[in-house]
Write a structure and sequence with these properties.
By secondary structure, this protein is mostly helical. The chain is built from five helices and no strands. The longest helix has about 30 residues.
Length: about 110
């Protein structure tokens, strides 16, 4: 049972690492739900719940890494079209005309 409680603590900490950061003074509803689920599970369901928690942790970590890589290798993803065109022109050594920059694409 001691190994189960140590594993549960480890899984709980891993889950908290993958959740969005919050101030220590207030816990989110997700944190409260995880705590009550771990504390109230019958012994026969604990192993299944821990296995599911490990799978969720792996999924959340993969999603976090995927998002980080997507933002790193696609820096123009969040830009509007005008800004993207301006930066593309600068990349090849050109500046856009003032009329285009001010919004008049004539």
């Amino acid at each position: 049972m001691a190994s189960n409680s140590a594993r549960a603590r480890s899984l709980y900490r891993s889950l908290l690492r993958e959740l969005p950061h919050r101030p220590l003074s207030e816990s989110s509803l997700v944190q409260q739900r995880i705590r009550t689920t771990i504390a109230t599970q019958p012994p026969e369901d604990v192993r299944l719940q821990m296995d599911q928690a490990e799978q969720y942790i792996q999924y959340a970590k993969a999603q976090r890494i995927y998002t980080t890589l997507l933002e790193r290798y696609n820096p123009g993803m969040e830009m509007d079209e005008e800004e993207r065109v301006r930066l593309t022109a600068r990349r090849v050594g050109m500046d856009l005309p003032d009329d285009f920059v001010k919004g008049r694409k004539s």
